[in-house]
Design a protein that fits this description.
Layout: H1 3-35, E1 49-50, E2 53-54, H2 63-125, H3 131-141, H4 170-186, H5 191-210, H6 217-234
Antiparallel strand pairs: 1-2
Helix pairs in contact: 1-2, 4-5, 5-6
């Protein structure tokens, strides 16, 4: 074969190789569209036909055949490299898209779960109290005023319930009686006098708590209410 003939054969072989590589790459994208999900393209070893046989197997043992076979291998290796690089890039893009989707679903699930927990806690708490409910609860915590028979509004004399007449409350009774006598004379107590009354009330309530298993529930409740009412009244001006 002349030198010109060999060159023409080489050009034909190169064109054929390039055409097969393009067709192989196109088939990979066509299969992706048909299946509806990405299938990575995998390079295939291709036997290139030229003239009377496959380039890889034509004219074995001849210089021309070896040259053509070497050129075909180089071109095919370059095509396989490009195809593998493209497939790797597509795989990386698909992985990034899946990561974004997973993060979006995680975020959505987190906020949905938090809202469900908030609704469950709100259901357990029940309806929020209205302003009228808050006022009523505040008033219910205020001790009731003592009657004139329990606390004389003019003299400040105190009529103690039976449980508070016990000797263990003698010191507390003395503090209360002195304070309310001063309140009747001057119309109100000073800050240090109110503090003494509060301290006496705390001591009396502590002693009452220690007696709770030894006295009747009625006597205990009456004595506790009486002490709390005295402490509350001491902070109010005399009428």
């Amino acid at each position: 074969m002349s030198g010109r003939g060999r060159c023409l054969a080489c050009v034909a072989a190169l064109l054929t190789i390039a055409l097969v590589a393009i067709m192989s790459f196109a088939r990979s994208f066509a299969s992706e569209g048909a299946s509806g999900s990405y299938q990575p393209a995998v390079p295939n070893t291709t036997q290139i036909y030229s003239g009377g046989g496959y380039v890889g197997y034509s004219s074995p043992g001849t210089v021309a055949g070896s040259r053509l076979q070497g050129m075909a291998s180089v071109v095919q290796a370059a095509g396989d490299y490009n195809l593998s690089t493209s497939a790797a890039y597509i795989n990386m893009t698909q992985a990034q898209q899946q990561a974004i989707k997973n993060y979006s679903e995680y975020t959505s699930t987190y906020f949905q779960t938090r809202e469900m927990n908030r609704q469950a806690r709100a259901a357990e708490r029940g309806p929020r109290p209205t302003e009228a409910d808050l006022v009523r609860m505040a008033r219910s915590d205020v001790p009731k005023s003592l009657s004139p028979g329990e606390l004389n509004p003019v003299s400040g004399k105190i009529s103690w319930p039976i449980l508070l007449q016990d000797d263990r409350f003698a010191n507390e009774r003395a503090v209360f009686e002195e304070a309310f006598a001063a309140r009747s004379r001057y119309g109100a107590l000073k800050l240090d006098e109110v503090k003494k009354v509060n301290a006496a009330a705390d001591a009396a309530l502590s002693d009452l708590k220690g007696m709770i298993n030894d006295v009747s529930g009625t006597d205990y409740a009456q004595a506790k209410r009486f002490v709390q009412s005295l402490a509350f009244t001491s902070r109010q001006p005399a009428t």
